[in-house]
Amino acid sequence: MASFDLMRRLAKKQGGKIVMLVMDGLGGLPLEVDGLTELEEATTPNLDRLAREGSNGLTIPIARGIEPGSGPAHLALFGYDPLVYDIGRGVLEAIGIGMEVGPDDIAARGNFCTVDDNGLITDRRAGRIPTEQAAEVVDALRDIRLPGVELTIQEVKEHRFALRLRGKGLSSQILDTDPQVVGAAPLPAQVSANTTEAQHTAGLVNQFIEQARERLKNQRPANMLTLRGFSGDPALPQFQDVYKLKAACVAVYPMYKGVSRLVGMDVIETDPHDEPLDEFNHIAEAWDDYDFFFCHIKYTDSRGEDGSFDAKTAVIEQVDAALPALLDLQPDVLVITGDHSTPARLKSHSWHPVPALIWAPATHMPDRVTGFGERECMTGALGQFPAAELMVLALAHARRLDRYGA
Amino acid sequence: MASFDLMRRLAKKQGGKIVMLVMDGLGGLPLEVDGLTELEEATTPNLDRLAREGSNGLTIPIARGIEPGSGPAHLALFGYDPLVYDIGRGVLEAIGIGMEVGPDDIAARGNFCTVDDNGLITDRRAGRIPTEQAAEVVDALRDIRLPGVELTIQEVKEHRFALRLRGKGLSSQILDTDPQVVGAAPLPAQVSANTTEAQHTAGLVNQFIEQARERLKNQRPANMLTLRGFSGDPALPQFQDVYKLKAACVAVYPMYKGVSRLVGMDVIETDPHDEPLDEFNHIAEAWDDYDFFFCHIKYTDSRGEDGSFDAKTAVIEQVDAALPALLDLQPDVLVITGDHSTPARLKSHSWHPVPALIWAPATHMPDRVTGFGERECMTGALGQFPAAELMVLALAHARRLDRYGA
Prior knowledge:
2 copies of one chain form a homodimer. The first copy, chain A, is α/β, with parallel strands linked by helices.
């Protein structure tokens, strides 16, 4: 595939406007033999017209057969080979709740757990306490102070929390403290590389653990914690640098805003209750300020995870009904796809290739696809291809790439 | 993709005869919604029969979304990954006018420009003087002599010329002398690597520049020159070595002859006014002497660049009408494709995948394609694949590759 060095060399500052509309977990499966998928079942006159006029295909998010997490799946859509570029687990957890992670920051995922009188773990998830209860436990830790670093801690969901250390000279080369079994004690923070920065950071983390142990000892069941996935700013190549794009993100969930920030997009303010039409209206308001808009629709994935075939279909129909507001903006290039498949039938992300269409009236190659759906896309002009190549195609259709060689 | 090491190991001296017919810029786009492409519009009974009987697909010349230059696009057709193998700009300019570039040669692209009394550039292209006028300016430079090297200079088009230095111990590690802006003086030749050879070469180039300055000072508007794209023989792996093929090129334009020479093909003499049938007759005359023929048709691309949909269609029809002369030779493998797309609609090369067919009656896998065209090829046996893999397929169909492993 085209490398970022090549993109830096070929990308032009001028060209058309691109909208990438991502319906999370768009791809699906039929519930029964001869059945239709969620997308095939949905009544989508606008998507069908775009598919009929434009180029269609199927994207492979990570690699054939690999079920994608949301982080790598979005990196791929943004043109980053997810097997090369990596956002650490701690950073993903942090940005997932809107905690920004910058160059001076180290983030980790935390679990509250239960230990017995000997300090041995009896429940690695503290009985999956409700999020509200975890928030109270977190409150008990907020006044922990560490020398020279700013500490931020916040509940995520149930027994999970995110921890961020901000300061100079920190390292993410710290091993997990979770022993992964019951009957063992949480481990102290230890280094995975013997550097001054790692030793210094491990020392700070151990001070945090000791102060937390003291504060939690009378709590039940969350009387201890473990930490995993220490990671720092992945320092990803920036959209402005590699693609020469001024890019904006319109998303409702923090995690997608976070990934967008990591690649250098501006994040447009949204309301947690925004519906697809509201999101498209946010794009309209910022239309003149950006070359590229990433628009994220969450609930296709959520209803897929729920196993609600009909509810997922309804979300797709809601997006379709709102589409004219996006089309009224007359984008030069409109890319519509998902980050991965979430078939209601599987109640889970899956590895199945994801329907994708590129509609760019000045440059697209029409195919014989008659509507937007998995099986129609199998016959399309784009074929099956790595999701990480979609950005290059979007730039090409926007006439934003110089010729390679003479 | 299969590497040259693998080709060296598997390629056999015996096997069928291969013809690769390349219609430059073959791929196109419809002019309007529901329209046909140039190739789909053309009446091509012979191509349609070959497509119906053989295997079809679409090639990706460089990488998805990347608009190919002619040099890299042809390297790909010859099996060289164009992101790995590179022909320098100076060499491309030189071979484009039939100037051969060998192991002792350094080539550069030159521009005549206009400078003011202070030596500052006022026009980087000397008013785009007509080629005939540039030829006279070039004549004024022909008697420049440099110690130990043979100098060749020739006009290209308008203000452009090609320069070749031939001698021992030269280096192409010389920076452009074009400052890329008006109001600045042309730069002296400087090295991009501090080696004896580069310093020696820069010294020679600066002697050339000073003598040229003297000879041009009373010319108007071309009273100075700049040099770019210093490059040497790319030392490409040779057809005879990697494929064990005795190969010949039949082309009308110098550039395609030049690239063929660089990969080790013999270049068969042609007339600049040769039509497709004449080119096929050249192949017939040399039929017994070669295993592989590359035949290049230029005008599909030229008419696409002109934006002349109907004229491009007419060139395709002309090729189709001449095809029986090629088929009469009974090639074992006939590959028909383009080096890239040049849709009349875009008046430019484009990144769109290129229709390709392999007709090899003894070995081809028929598909359900009913005629040769972009949308038919989308459904074919070959799928979409990198153009650089086409040579391996051609060798396979000619039974010229040993089995890999037992």
